[in-house]
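The material for today's practical consists of a large collection of protein records. An example says more than a description, so a record of this kind follows:
***
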Amino acid sequence: MFCNGIILPCPFTINPSAVSSIFMKQDDNVFPKTSTGIAGLDEITGGGIPKGRPTLICGSAGSGKTILAIQFLIKGITEYDEPGVFMSFEESAKDLTQNVRSLGFDLEELMLQKKLKIDHVRVERSEIQETGEYDLEGLFIRLNHAIDSIGAKRVVLDTIESLFSGLTNTGILRSEIRRLFQWLREKGVTTIITGERGDTTLTRQGLEEYVSDCVILLDFRVIEQIATRRLRIVKYRGSTHGTNEYPFLIDEDGVSVLPITSLKLEHKISTEIISTGVPGLDKLFNGGGYYRGNSTLVTGCAGTAKTILAAYFALNSCKRNERVLYFSFEESPDQLVRNVSSVGIHLGPYIKSKMLLIHASRPSLHGLEMHLLSLHKHIREFKPQTIIIDPISSLITIGSKGEVRAMLARLMDMLKMHHINSLFTSLNDEESLNYSGISEEAISSLVDTWIKMRNEETGGNRIRSLYIVKSRGMGHSSEIRDFIITDRGIEIMNAVSPVKKARRAREKAETFSENGTKHKS
């Protein structure tokens, strides 16, 4: 055996079978955890925070520490029948109750039911005397009474900096922090302690993160005028956990976290065929449509009927009694419904029957990951079978090509895991057959089916056409098909004859010179 570079006799030998039995015993013993009840957070932590131990939640002002902590208590009461104590060193019970009412949390009702106890401990620096006898015995007595009075299983201390703000004696401060955490462990309550982030450390004192069993860091950052909240599990003793940064959202329902882990390509697939919504387009696929759970990209310049094709897909899904979630980044719900009704696509009845939900917002409302989190939240609540995003090219305005690709890859993985049909439209600036826009480059290799739509000017008329670039696992036509749009919708025309193709080629050869005069090339 080696010790500091010196060879020492080994006092024992290692039995390989004994080692394997040790690991088997460890697998058999499940690490005790307490569910937070917060969407996404339990998934990241592998089931919740350590049961009967203190967890530190740290972050700068406004990062969401108090909201996450109070939601932990409320979920424990309402979903797991675990009473809780909230000891505040900053906000009074009245202020705290009022502040979280906007999130739908009725703390007064829970206190009347003796399920929740809020204790405001006022700490004044001028009243603190630092002597050798100073300790937190009074706080322990007060907290112990609050816990025992309602049989609390969960405790929140908010925030620890306020408790020690008047102390300058480092020795006393460190000693009492350790004693507080040890007392909470011995009491056996699952505790969340909030702390302000320091300049170079996770907390102001720089000690809490070392004595905590689990440390969660919240971050609120602004990049190019777009605010994003992030969460990271810094450490978790005795348990594996997600190590990435995860975006989280604070809305009218509280905190929700989006797990973004490395997803394996193990999605289950289906051989069932569903219609595109356009009979003429179905005929271009050997199977008569898309596979269920398929991801489809529809690209083209402005005016090529991408949104109409997406609306057809939505309508057909609703007719199959399948819920549709439609994300529109350019049109309001009323405008979208009015516009597609002009071509015979009537979505209004399905909105009223709650088969179709149209969510409209500008891309700049959130960052990319927040849009992904919003999608995840709507999927969880609305439970759609089909999702349409129109157009994804708008996302380029709030992120680079690589960032958009990463976001869409995670989105597609999530949709395939839930067997959700998806269709994405993307706007191109050019009408060239070989032109690929930024959004196309970002997503075309990820989707299962890619349909290109285009406009041509021939003989003084504009001719719309489409063709299938690819369709994984299914044969398809390679022909470029013209189509027309009437008040009855899209009508796919028959294949273009060789004579017509030659005439088009001649007309297309007429180009404009740099001075604007037409010449034959």
